[in-house]
Structures are given as structure tokens and as C-alpha cells.
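Incident log entry.

Two folding requests arrived from the same account within the same minute. Monitoring flagged them as a possible duplicate submission, but the sequences differ. Recording both here for audit purposes.

Request one:
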Amino acid sequence: MALLSAVGGATWRCSGRLPALHFSGAARRGERPGGEELSRLLLDDLAPTPRSAGRLELLFGLSPCLLALRAARRRVARLLLQAGRSGLQGERAELLRAAEARDIPVLRPRRQKLDALCRSQVHQGVCMEVSPLKPRPWTEVGEAKPGDDPQQLWLVLERIQDPRNFGAVLRSAHFLGVDKVITSGRNSCPLTPVVSKASAGAMEVMDVFSTDDLAGFLQAKAREGWLVAGTVGCPGPEISPSSEIPITSCLEFLWDRPTLLVLGNEGSGLSLAVQASCQLLLTILPGRQLPPGLESLNVSVAAVRGRVSLWRGRESTFSKTPENPQPHQKGPEWRGTQDCPRGQNKRGRMGADLD
């Protein structure tokens, strides 16, 4: 006789064969389970969550959960640690101690329950019910001025929509020492648990700011003395709305003043309004002639490549030696009128198609 058991609004039918999973309405729609369904998912292992659980979200993964507890920026309703693990050591033990120190309920569901809760995302046996994080208004950035630190670098993201790309960009930005991250308020990926997991938890400790008027923000920073550097594909006549905006390779760019590095949407790149707000456009030249469809880098890779290039330019600018008493001279610029080599990208983007 078939054995039935309810798990997370889903029903497993076991009759000696591989189980078939029948998801609830929310699961079929790909939605995050709300408070009522979350309680059903946790059924016999966990006590029902309060009605306010609908305003919570499920953070998953060891690093995101641990860094969220350390940062203490979220309200934590409870910690879920997978049952059946023989002893908790290292970071899992630290998680447990931190939760107990803050009187956070700790529950031990089976792995199948966590799989159902996380929609089969890689949770590493650790989840937390937490309040959401939201970007802060850019007006809260503070009065950072160019003279305060000539090596400041802010990363500006316009309409980045894939959560894994967004998370990878945040992880790289944090590792490489980017000072601040600004996102466009419209048509951008929110700060979701998937973003946090893709960032290896960097999202939990970074301040991410947002503005609905990205072009106005860039123009305001330019008036304050910042260099606004956009990113585009291989130089060509379609790249820039204005031939007055110089285009140069990242390898030739010298970082000698505070800079805002602007990355555009994975598919369409920078909007014309944002491009027109840039004082300089940077490009990454490919190492070979590329076939159609492979003309550009993934936006997270482009962010790393651009940041490393700026770092090298800074070293050339600020480091003088007896053997090289003069800093490296700035390389040639393109003016957006030179044709790109055949087969290479001419659109205004340095990002890439979604992974």
C-alpha cells in the first residue's frame, strides 16, 4: 500500500519506487512560502510560526546565516539546524552559541524539511527565519568628498536583475575593497536570500544604497569632483550618445582620483541617460576575435576585471621608483567613432548574458 506523508505543502507518494513530489500552489508558482504555509512545511518537527512570519524570509546557507548573526542587522525569529549531524563543530557550533546568547529559538528539522523549505536550494543544513534587508537611500551615504581619500571607489549598478549575478558582484566588491555599492531603485534585483547565498554572505555585512534617479546621482557626484566612469563593450559608433565621451581600455586607465565605476544591465548594458552622465567610458578588450553571442563578459566577471584594472592603474599612478621616476602615462582614447573589429560587440555593455 502506498505510503503518504505531507512535507511542506507537498505530498510524497512512496510505493517502492522513486518518490513523486506534488507541490502546493505557492510552490508551483515559485513563491517564497508565507507564514501559514511555512508552518505547514515545518509540520511535526517545528512549532507553528506566528502570523508575522509572512513578513519574514528564509535565509539559507552557513556563511549567510553566520554573518547575519554577527552583523545583527536582521531580526531573527529562529535558527534551523539540520537534525542528525553528529555533533556541531566549527562555524555551526558558533551559530548555535550565538543563537543561544540572543535567546533565539533553535529547531532541528530533518533534511527533507529543509529541502522543501528552501525549494531545493543548497542550504548546507542551516536556515534562519529573518526580517528582510533593504537598500538604504543614497542620501544616507554621507558627505564623502574627493579630498578625503583620492583612492575611493564606489560601484554603481544599473538594473542588475539576476540574483546570482548580483550576489557575485557584491562578493567580489567586498573582497576587492570597494568602498560603497549603489544600485538603481527601479528594475533591480532586491536583497534576497538567493543574493546573500551567491555573495557568500557578503550582503549581510555590506551597506548597499539605492536611488531612483541614478543619472541625477552621477551628475551630482561629478559636480563634487568625482570621476564617473561607465563600462561598455568594444568601442563602436553605437556605443555613446555623445562623441564627446572618451572611451579607453581598462588596461590604459589611470585611477588618480575618487571614481564611480558604473556597470549596466546583463543584457542591454547602460541606459542612454546613464551613459550621458558619465565622463569616461571603460571597455575590456577581448583576447581574440569573438563569434556572435560571446562578445562580452558576465557582469560579475566584468566587475572584478574592471576593479583589478583600476587597482593596477592606481599602483602605476601613485608608485614611483628610482627606476621609474614618472608614473605611467595615460594610453590612447577612443572617441566612439572607430569601428570595432569584426565579430566583436558594439553595444553599450560590459556585462553579459545571464548565466
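Request two (distinct sequence, not a duplicate):
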Amino acid sequence: MKFTIQEQIAAFEARRASANARMVEIMEAAAEVGATLDTAQQEEFDTLTDEIKAIDSHIGRLKTIEAQVIRAASPIIVTDPASASAVRGGVVVPQQQQRNPVITVQQNVAKGVAFTRYAIALMRAKGDLMQAAEIARGWHDSTPQVELVLRAAVAAGTTTDPAWAAPLVDYTNMTGEFIELLRPETIMGQIQGFRRVPFNIKMPSQLSGSSAQWVGEGKPKPVSALSFGTVTLGFSKAAGIVVMTDELVRFSNPSAEAIVQRDMIATIAQFLDVQFIDPTVAAVAGVHPASITNGAPNIPASGPTADDLRQDIGTLFAMFVQANMSIRGAYWIMDPVMALSIGMLSNALGQAEFPGINMNGGVFFGLPVVVSSNVPHHTSTGESDPATTMLVLVLPSEILLADDGGVTLDASREASLQLDDAPTAGAATLVSLWQNNMVALRAERFINWQRRRNQAVAYITGARYGGNFIIPKPPVTDGEEGTNGEPVRDAGLVTTTRS
């Protein structure tokens, strides 16, 4: 059996320690009787001394060889944890495998860039997939998956089903990165704990509970009937159209890509937030769901002071407790101006009443705060009509959410659009994209939600805590106003839903 240099050194050091211990024993035995070493002891002691000298010399030679081997050693390259474990266990890795390690190279680009370039290629190609693939070839070094997806889409016929063709998995990865960028911009993306369910699956729901009673010995037990129903979340498609000039999408620099990315995120985020939180959004069968606050229990604000706020918050908590629901895992949703106003409330000593909250969120009465400028608010029209907003308390574990987690894109410049955030059928005024040298990008996402229990959401209306804070009106675009007299928020944004 062949021993390594380290094993030989350890063996000789053990022999040296044993010989040294025997020499100590010989001297101690002579000291106990008060005599010198006899002839046998002298011979043994001298033999051990010579043996230790020989061992020391041999150990020195072994250490010299060990140092030379270390200087001449080459590193063993392993490519996976299994190979590393084998090497540590003494398995020799073939030299051929060491010379040709597997190296994985990843693109050093920010998340969402590939999906943005996919959108730009579609817009520059005016919806032509073959031409878009040629455009994407220019980004092959940094984002080769864009070209791969566009070419695969021609043969496979779809870009949303990864099981259809293996290259289309790249599309799922691109949309996944874009969704990761979209989540922090939406109310839903900042809330954790939704009860996620698939589309078009019937889920049982209990409509009435059972009863129990005390039963005496030999008496019949009560039997009560349970009533069940079913809940199904069908497909609801949120669609938005972003219109850009042809010159903008022709640019390939990062600044133009950032503009396209921000516009796509703003289009989807603003629309989904309003549809999710606005209590005036009612369900339309086969088209879109109701907002989580539509028909939910609510109370009017008691007043603008900190004591009024505490009283209203206590009322909301009592509503949850009365419905036999825990507020563990609940979230607050409010306008950032309202959050700032609450954070600025102070007591008689000048100390903040609620130091954990600010316009970026925080913690309020032990629960996290999600802020969004898309929370509905009433703009002040005078001193007698102050600005107000709403505070929403939501329990996400009681909210059913169906989301395919992807975004589908298409582009065109041969269309005529109705530039309105509430388009109507048969509109008289349309804008020709071809005439105005524009390109339209349509983004679609399948998503649906529903309250599992009606008491899962409660909110305060008419809130103006901290005084008559001012929520400025959105800027008027081109001097136009909406049908209700309010300024147009974004005249270039077209958002709608389709079943």
C-alpha cells in the first residue's frame, strides 16, 4: 500500500514520540531507586537516542520532498459539486477533464433589458417577426435570447408556451425579469401572501357553518347541514397601448431603451393599481373583476386629529375581529401624501405621534404600509370642500389571485387609435399612426382577483388626518379636460380590458 508524504511524516513523528516517552521512563525508573543506569538500560537508552536522530533526519528529508511537490503541483479543476466531492475523497480527475473545464458565460446586462429590446425590435419592425429577428441580431453579443425568441416564434407560432418549443423558455425568462421590475411599481407586487389560484378552476367555498350543542347521556346528537358553493376565477386580460414616435424606437442607445422600459412599466402598473384599489370599479362578467374595495365594509373618517385617527383605526380592527379574522399578515394601503401627513402628526411636546410611517411607507400600528399615488383621492375645490383620500386595510391571505406571470407584446404602425383612457366603440376621432409617424406597442397580461371573504378588506373614506393637506391636480395635457371636468392624467395612454 502506497502512503502519501504527509502520512509518512505523521508515522515517523509518532515513532519519535514513542521513543522519547520510553527514554523518559528509563530515567524515571533509575531515579526512583537512586541508582545510575545499568548496562541493559544504557544500551536501550543509547539505541533510542540514535533512533531519534535517524527519525529526525528522515523527517527532514520527507519535508524537503513535500516542499518540492507543492511547488510543482498544478491545480485540479472541477466543474461541479459532485466532482469536487470526489476529488476531496481521493478520486483522481482525468487530465483531459482538467484541461477542458466547462465555463458558463452570462450577459452582464440589467434585468428587463432583454424584454425591452424585444419590444423595441417589434416596434422597429412594425410587427414583422422576421424583420424583428434581423434587428435583434445587432444585440446578439449582449442579449442573444431576443433573436432566438423572435426566430422561434415564426416556426412555433406562439411565444407564451415554454412547452411548445425549447427555445421559447428564453421568452419566459425575459418576461420574468420584466415582471420583477414591474412588481415594486404596483400595489399587488408590494404585498406578500395572496392566495394564488389557477385560472378556470372551481374552488369550493363554505356558505354556512355547522352547529354544535351539549349532549346528555343517551341523548341524540344534533346534525346540521353544511352549505357549499364554488368560486371560479376566469381569464381576464388587461391590455395597454403605448404610442411612441418612430424616431425614438429607431435609437439603439441605453437612454432610448430606458424610456421604452419606463413607459411599459407605467402603462401596466398605473392601470392595474387603479383597477385593484378603486372602490368604484365594479365587476363586468367576462371582462374584468371588481376591485378589492368594491362593496367592502367602510367607515367615514371621524376627523383630522391623531385621536380621531386612533379611533378610526380601532374601529377597522374591531371589524376584522368581529368577523373572526386575524389581522396577522395584513397591510395598509394609502396615498403617499396621506402617509406623509400622518407621519407629521405630533403631540404637545413636538414628538411624532406615529414615527414609523413616512411617504415611502413604513409601519403603522404594527402593520406594513404600501403607498401608491393611484389610491383614489378627492381633490379640494375650496375651503368648504377639503381634499380627502382613503385608508385601506387588506388581508392578502383572503384575496384570491390568478396571474399567469407573463406579458404578451405586439406592435403596429398601420393602425388608427383612439387616444383615450376610456375608449368607446364607434369613436369619431381617430389618430393614424402611419400619418403621424408613430408606432404603437400593445401589452397584454392575464390576471384576475376576488375577495375570498367580504370582510377581508375594510377602509376609511374621507380621510384628511393632519389637516387640510393639498393633493395637486395632475397637469392638463394640451389644455384638455376629461368628461367629468378633471384634468386628463395622460392623454397618450390607452388602457382597457378585454375578456
